[in-house]
Amino acid sequence: MHSFRYDQLASVRPGDTVTLEKGENTHLFKILRAAPGDVCRLLDGKGNSALARVEKEKTLTVENVEKLPPLPGAALHLFLAPPRRQKMDIILKQCTELGVASITPLICERSVALPDADSVNGRWSELLFEACKQSGNPYLPQLFPPVKFTESLETASSKCGKCFYGSVAEEEKDPFSGGENEIKDIGWFVGPEGGFTEEEEEKMKENAFHPLHMQCWILRAETAAICGLALLRDRFLRSKTF
Predict the structure, then answer these.
(1) Most buried among 15, 79, 181, 194, by the most CB within 10 A?
(2) Angle between helices 221-238 and 85-97 (to 10 degrees)
(3) 39/18 Cα distance (integer angstroms)
(4) Per-position b or e across 10-27, b if 16+ CB within 10 A of its CB
(5) Is residue 44's pLDDT more than 90?
(6) Is residue 36 exposed (0-12), middle (13-18) or buried (19+ Cβ within 10 Å)?
(7) Residue spans per domain, the chain
(8) Is CATH 2.40.240.20 the classification given to domain 3-67?
């Protein structure tokens, strides 16, 4: 079943007639050639979902509306030094499929791409919603403006019960052990294409961040970002403490 964006879903009731905005309307009726009687799903990115039936005059009749719960377990927050545009696009889509709660772009010593506010609030947001529609994730990840690396450490420490960072060499014997009963959110830090500097890694250690080494080789930023989220999601989603 195809999904479409409808931002006013919270105020809609079964039986209401709605019209999609221009881009979504074109996709449904000109590209997919929807006919009366066809059924689609509506999402608003805030947890609301609805089934709607196609009517004449390119309108939809809402059949039901429900509030879907967030994923169980710890919420995942991605702190990432963005790679170049095409690679970042991949990360945005795939981390949405994995149910990440928020994305904060980092400005590190070795950053190669510094996104502007228009990219974050415009194109990035659109890519995230496209991934929501494709995957069925009812919750749009929250996008934060870019922050300097040092500033992000305090934010993550106050928000997350445990934070991890991608390490090309160092690893703990069991980075997941200890304090699970108190963990609410999880922070995942991924450095730029050149990696974190030694000074940045030292600052993360000082803030009790845990190094996470996932391979015997060096991973690309886009690979590390997604693999780390999948690993953390699997570990803390399955934990009986949540």
Answers:
(1) 79
(2) 10
(3) 13
(4) eebeeeeeeebeeebbeb
(5) yes
(6) exposed
(7) 3-67, 75-238
(8) yes
Give the Cα separation of 161 and 188 in Å (integer): 12
For residue range 153-171, list pLDDT tens digits in order: 999 999 898 999 988 776 6
- Can you give the pLDDT at residue 7? 94
Of the candidates 106, 56, 57, 58, the residue with the CA atom closest to the CA atom of residue 79: 106
**DSSP label at residue 28:** I
Residues 53, 38 contacting (CB under 8 angstroms): yes
pTM: 0.86
Tokens standing for residue 48: 């609301």
Write the pLDDT tens digit of every residue in 121-142.
788 899 999 999 999 999 999 9
Helix axes 198-206, 149-159, angle to 10 degrees: 30
Residue 208 has pLDDT above 50, yes or no: yes
| Residue of 215, 207, 242 lying closest to 231 (CA atoms) | 215
Q: In angstroms, what CA-CA distances link 206 with 77, 90, 212? A: 20, 32, 16
